[in-house]
Amino acid sequence: MPTNVTIEDLQRKSHWLRQELFELVMRRKKGHLPSSYSCAEMVIALMYGGYIRGYPSAPRHPDRDRLIVSKGHAAMVLYPILADLGYFPNDELDKFATPEGRLRLYADHTIPGIETITGSLGHGLGIGCGYAYAAKQDGKDARTFVLLSDGECYEGSVWEAAMFAAHHRLDNLIVIVDRNGLCILDRTEACVKLDPLDDKWRAFGWEVLTVDGHAYRSILPALDRAVAHRSGRPMAIVSHSVKGKGISFMEHQALWHNTMPNEDQMQQARRELLDNCIDG
Questions:
Q1: Which of 58, 63, 99, 200 has its CA 20 to 30 A from that of 252?
Q2: DSSP secondary-structure letter at 16?
Q3: How far apart are CA 272 and CA 19, in angstroms?
Q4: DSSP-assigned beta bridge partners for residue 208
Q5: 280: in domain
Q6: How many angstroms separate the CA atoms of 164 and 205, rounded?
Q7: Within a domain: residue 2?
Q8: Across residues 199-204, what is the average pLDDT?
Q9: Residue 239, domain member (yes or no)
Q10: pLDDT band at residue 4, thresholds of 50, 70 and 90?
Q11: If DSSP codes are grouped into helix, strand and coil, which group holds residue 25?
Q12: Does residue 1 form part of some domain?
């Protein structure tokens, strides 16, 4: 890990982020908590672990690295982080999903620190390929990270982009597949089987790593390897995670994709988020 941040620091950030996201969503009763919680550790590792070169005072700096949250329903996972890093004032969080604020239910490029609109699944990897290819052509060392949902891997556009990336040897492109095993309807393996997902990415010419998506001791070595590799092949990290991680009654349950808790459930969730921390 290329900074002085410790695993304990990142664990505290996990604890903080889940509470921030919960209150963000509860204020408006809008948002997708379970999808955000399943990728929280991965996004925190990227944003606070020194893997992404960003410029809060100049969000469109040409030398920046890119993070594209292609699972657009979970792009709100970045909002508290971007505020914390100084991309926009913290009081924007209070205006989430209101006409007065800039933080929308689905993120878009008008928000500092957000690269593109990704509300429609299957587009983020193609956009990421464009950024990575352009960086290669321009001789820049910028990296592009794309966070996909596993259900998003049903989209043919994902695999078209995967072929493009392998063909053009985009080893500055890193895909993270949030493998929480659920989509909006059911378990992915009950809808259309995805496994063996890691072998599918290998078959398309990618290097592949698998990690425990809630354990920093698993995530950080994988990211270290991903950013150091220059094999001529793009990298995919399959991150096994739990949808709704941190709130017991939301975990592993497809019905909570965008369902709001009642008052009793809200209080239970707050207690659990206060008490729980992620074992890194």
A1: 200
A2: H
A3: 10
A4: 236
A5: no
A6: 10
A7: no
A8: 98
A9: yes
A10: confident
A11: helix
A12: no
CB burial class (10 A; 0-12, 13-18, 19+) of residue 141?
A: exposed
| CATH code for the domain in which residue 146 is found | 3.40.50.970
Alpha-carbon torsion angle 111, 104, 40, 30, nearest 10: 170
Coil, helix or strand at residue 190: helix
DSSP one-letter code for 65: -
Residue 121's Cβ-count burial label (10 Å; 0-12, 13-18, 19+) is buried
Number of domains in the chain: 1
Residue in 127, 62, 52, 120 with CA at minimum distance from that of residue 82: 52
The set of residues, in sequence order, having a beta carbon less than 8 Å from that of 14 and lying 6+ positions away, is 40, 41, 44, 277, 278
Quick check: 262 pLDDT over 90?
yes
In the predicted model, what is the mean pLDDT of residues 113-127? 94
Which helix (H) or strand (E) segment holds residue 68: the answer is strand 66-69
CB neighbourhood size of 195 (10 A): 12
Report the C-alpha gap between 149 and 155 in whole angstroms.
11
Give the range of the structural domain holding residue 204, as residue numbers without chain letter. Answer: 7-275
**What rounded mean pLDDT belongs to the chain?**
96
Quote the CA–CA distance of 196 and 235 in Å, as a whole number: 17
